């Protein structure tokens, strides 16, 4: 009962921010005032919860591209498997959590012009301090303040891999726009860059917005598309992938994408190349490639970014093919498609299970992650009123806490678990697959050993210079995180304390509850007023709640999102076929999924030798 009560409360919040009935009725009135709109009105009435707060839902089948309207999606209620784009998970609101829909907001945005200009003024009516300056002053680190955490590199890596299953916010990488965050720039004025745009680069064959040029992650072209008829008011950012934890990072978020990843003749398998690596992508799939090595192609457009991510993509590709081969053996009458889908369903369940039982308890601490915290408990109900879509503040701030865990180097560990002498600095490894692929795949276990042996950094205000100064050789990722938050109109840290039911910030002294004195001094140096502290800065620098890897504000935003992702997912893995005969696993299947650990997945696919049971903890 308690659970239900709590979730009801959360739903009420969405009622306020999420289901804009008022906006909807205005829309209906508008439509009714013109003749010939009967079909549209019927459509709006059919999906009374269709419009979410500050979200413009991009039509799925719009012929008049560029016009936002509310369209219906026809769902097959008897479908056993998830759609690739995440539509029809929620049968009342079929676009919830699906790819190419808007993100959500937990707090109304504070854009400078109320609509789309980045938050740029302080509460004292002066310009906010440049993100680069804040990064330099507050987040700079040297060896002395780089604290090791109790957890491994694998713990950090899982966070990034998981992030890439949940959210991809399309961005422009115009260097002019990113002035704020270039390493060499030390400017004090905030340039108010506009670094967001609508996702226009769509899979081949998709006609949506076909004449509008925009940018995908890391592909540079023309400037962002602002002010189109699809620009939400106030502006809301879009998620290009499915919000659900459904292994969209492995399979992609559309039919077209998965086709490019599947083996053409043996339909149950994913394509492999070389020594069991994902297939090569096109020249855009990574910036640096050598003829000897191929850049990985996976469901995640960012699969090549860094070694730890390349490893996990390789691992789950192998796991898919391993399970598909077993299922083929066991079920002689299944065709390739059936085996593929069953395997995909199992892989998605594994990602959910590992995330909620191995990963999240270490992020949120047992208090928030245990039974009462809804995270590690069995999901014994589904709440279709919960919209599982990723929230903007989760993606742009809270879940980026992982950037503080990143180490400055990578290296191989031999079969005796001894570190190689040579360390490779992170800056030399962006989008470079050679470290994983050289030596005909024999490096893969050496990389795995590194990830389960070395420790990641503690989450705190100190970031490695490798990411603070050298992301893709030229960016300050920390400054970029701050700037993105402003660009998305994310309210400052002080508002989030109130949202999370924490004590109010009244003056610098009141920061003491969750920040240490030295941090407060640093914050004082760059912010005129504690009210102006950016969420990503105030959040990451909080003292951790007991047993957790983050402080109370980030924990609150993270927990809220992970509750929706679990109880708002009709396909959640541990509700069995008695609970839902169409999509549920059998009890036996669930029992075996519950036995899965990331360590077991590694052992089954990579020749590491003996490793610890919990690969997020040092052995
Ligand atoms: C070596 C490791 C990592 C690198 C090089 C890296 C790099 C990046 C870069 C370049 C961006 C895009 C920034 C922007 O344009 O706004 C980004 C976004 C992000 N990162 Fe990381 N990251 C790493 C690890 C992590 C980890 C461990 C986590 C979480 C635990 C994480 C969570 C995120 C999230 C949530 C986003 C926003 C995604 C979106 O909305 O599109 N990252 N990261
Ligand atoms: Ca997903």
Describe the structure.
Helix 4 (131-139) runs antiparallel to helix 16 (517-526). The model is unreliable at 1-24, 43-71, 173-177 and 186-233 (pLDDT under 50). The strands form 3 sheets. Strands 1-3 form a two-stranded antiparallel ribbon. A two-stranded antiparallel ribbon has the order 2-6. Helices cover 35% and strands 3% of the residues. The two termini are 39 Å apart. The protein has 619 residues and is an all-alpha fold. The chain has helices spanning 2-17, 21-32, 38-46, 131-139, 153-166, 248-251, 255-261, 307-330, 336-369, 392-396, 434-437, 443-453, 465-468, 477-487, 493-499, 517-526, 535-540, 552-567, 587-594, 598-605; strands spanning 101-102, 148-152, 238-239, 409-410, 424-425, 455-457. It is built from 20 helices and 6 strands.
- Strand-residue fraction? under 5%
Distinct bound molecules = protoporphyrin IX containing FE, calcium ion
Residue stretches low in confidence (pLDDT < 50, at least 5 long) are 1-24, 43-71, 173-177, 186-233
Round the Cα radius of gyration to an integer and report it: 23 Å
Write the element-wise H/E pattern from the N-terminal end onward.
HHHEHEHEHHHHHEEHHEHHHHHHHH
> What is the terminal separation in angstroms?
39 Å
Main pleated sheet = 2 strands, antiparallel
Number of E-type strands: 6
Average pLDDT across residues? 81
Class of secondary structure makeup = mainly alpha
Q: How helix-rich are the residues, as a percent range?
A: 25-40%
Shape: globular
Across the major sheet, the strand order is: 1-3
What is the tally of helical segments? Answer: 20
